[in-house]
Amino acid sequence: MLRKNDIPHVAILMGIPDDWGRKIVKGIISYANNHGSWNIWIGPQTPEGIDELPADWCGHGVIGRIVSPKLSKILSESALPVVNVADSKVEGFTAPCVRTDDKISTRLAVDFFVKRGFRNIAFAGPSFLPNARWYSRQFQKVLAEYGLTGSVLPFDRGEIVSRKKLIPWLQALPKPVGILAYAQGIGRSIVDSCMEVGIQVPHDAAVLSGSYEELLCHACRPALSGILLPTEQIGYKAAELLHRMMHGEDVPHETTFIPPLGIKELLSTDTLAVEDTVLVPLVRYLQAHAFEPI
Prior knowledge:
Helix 1 crosses helix 9 (231-246) and helix 3 packs across helix 4. The longest helix is centred in the N-terminal third of the chain and has 16 residues, at 19-34. The radius of gyration is 22 Å and the shape is elongated. It is 38% helix and 17% strand. The chain starts with 8 loop residues before the first strand and ends in a 5-residue tail after the last helix. The protein is an alpha/beta fold.
């Protein structure tokens, strides 16, 4: 436990090569700057290999993406205050967790497509990730509330990259269709595959990613819309909980869910679901000139 004049020494155990990790760290640093200086150890650069505490590190607390059983055991035995920011928990590891509220994310996505007239809505996500499987079930649950059923493409490691399973699925979907991709990498593969086989994005298939990353979503053609995840807010809240724990305060050990911030709309969803091909150019014209005087 921290003494009155101690500077907190905190280890951040997660990969930070992507937008998600960097923004989590940004939120942690923002909290630290608002509440006195922290000595922060960050690493490693990639998620692989995070299965132990840093060598020769003596600190007061840990914030991390705790997905390794080995690391969770080490942290449990260390008695260090720990806050987890992973979207899937290790069985038996009971540290407080802060993450995105994916129930709201899936509802946000379905509402987005329904309000644009889509009756055909689909989902693609990895079957090997526990949270992605849960996300898929929650997506179908929200669809059912609208009286809709959606096609789901589960895939194993590497299958989304090879596109052997993806392209036939895309071709078989009734059009127009709104497609929710679990993450932006999957969304990019969907857009590229659609363009490869002549499925027009967004008019035949409107594609929405479950996460938005500014660099990679704009590198897609057409640019990929995505759900704005509250990553900085997750980092800030995790730092707040850890700070309280380092001062000996008891905090709730159930998961703290932070709602997504909305949807960043780009060209991949810039359409309305219109089945009559004669009406498509008319709808495009109306969208382009809606606010001009008659």
